[in-house]
Amino acid sequence: MSHTFQVSDKAIKGDGNELGLVPTTKEGEVYDGSDTVARDAVFGEITEKGPNYRNLGTVALMMKTQIGLGVLSIPAVFDVLGLIPGVICLITIAVITTWSDYMVGIFKLRHREVYSIDDAGGLMFGQIGRIVFGTAFCLYWVFVAGSGMLGISIGLNAVSTHGACTAAFVAVAAIAGFLLASIQTLGRISWLAWVGLTCIITAIMTLTIAVGVQDRPSAAPQTGPWVSDYRLAKSPSFADASSALSSLVFAYAGTPAFFSIVSEMRDPRHYTRSLIICQSGVTATYIAIGCVVYYYCGSYVASPALGSAGAVMKKVCYGFAMPGLLVTTTLVIHLPSKYIFVRLLRGSKHLTQPTFLHWGIWFGCNFSIAAVAYIIASSIPVFGGLVSLIGALLGTLLSFQPMGCMWLYDNWRKGKAERTTKWRLMVWWSIFVVVSGSFLMIAGTYGSIVGIIDSYKASGGSAAFSCADNSNSVGHQ
């Protein structure tokens, strides 16, 4: 006798197994605990023969989505803004994105059919919203995958002392990312997240200790007395400041991935708790690493930051970081691939049953995303510029404006009748999130493009599809 799990209506009220799989039986049957079939609002029937899309624990995956490439650019951001403005801007963006992440969980509980941000866009703005947000979602993660491959190539160059052509290292990163991203469910990838999170934190802690005990950073003059030229406050140009803020947005722009994470959670009631742990740990890590590395390195901090502590420690730091960079690349290839896969097969048996069409489309999606990301990584081989461009153009669009609109969508009509003080404050807050996100998107994109152009003009700029060593980029000009 088989039974069916269905999502409980108690999810809307906040009690019961929110978004859980609730066992049911046919009339007159007695439930014996031997269920082999489940039904989900997004994935439909989940059987033992196919992948279990509802088997995910979250904290490690959420933290690995955040702590990855973004943390490697934070010391360079402080070099642009100055230490105090840098910390203030980081905390401000942390607060806004934490609220945005929280809204993802709330919106998902209220609209159980939502799988990705394009579903939310469809509810709020119709077919145009679905297309715009869906396209932005795919482009964002493809660009992040490209920056991940670029980061891996920098690491391989550092560890091997430029042992091969950089374009070949990017190709190796693309192939490895494709193979690991083809693991079908986030639940099965979550153990990789623990490995990657441990490795990347070990790498940046090693870097932090190394810059504190060394005489001077590797890019600083190696003869004569030297004192760090860090500044508590600086006066950057509009373009430089906008680009720096975009890098901070990118460091917190795991928000669009949280739709997929909450959709595959075993128990979505734990989402908010996991989010608080994630954002608290991420923010503390960012502040500690950014402040210490910038304090000791000043304007001679490298981008990515792992190259700041000398030739030997660069090898050590990148050696620790390589698994973390690979896991980041794996996740950000998996996310858009899963999105396209679900969109193509949603509502059909092929989504959850291991048919030939199921596997063909799944591997095709992963290969296509990895191939496009490889082209991007090879075409824009400037790590800092690529990170800030992604954060400005797409990270902001997917982490600020939609979440303000989501609150207004769910609460505008209901609260308009009573107009309580709390409702008024939340309306203004939601509008602020939308407006500030729009400003950062426009200004940051401009600043990032200017920065990329300047990098190509400077002596440190490298050409597209180049074999040149890309592991010696420094923020100091």
Automatic annotation (TrEMBL):
Keywords: Membrane, Transmembrane, Transmembrane helix. One of its GO terms (molecular function) is L-amino acid transmembrane transporter activity. GO terms for cellular component: membrane. Pfam families: Aa_trans (PF01490). The keyword Membrane applies. InterPro entries: AA_transpt_TM (IPR013057). The chain crosses the membrane at residues 59-78, 84-107, 128-154, 160-180, 192-213, 244-262, 274-296, 316-335, 356-377, 383-409, 429-453. It comes from the Eukaryota. Residues 58-449 form the Amino acid transporter transmembrane domain. It is found in: Membrane. It is a multi-pass membrane protein. Belongs to the amino acid/polyamine transporter 2 family. This is Amino acid transporter transmembrane domain-containing protein. It comes from Rhizodiscina lignyota. The lineage of its organism: Eukaryota, Fungi, Dikarya, Ascomycota, Pezizomycotina.
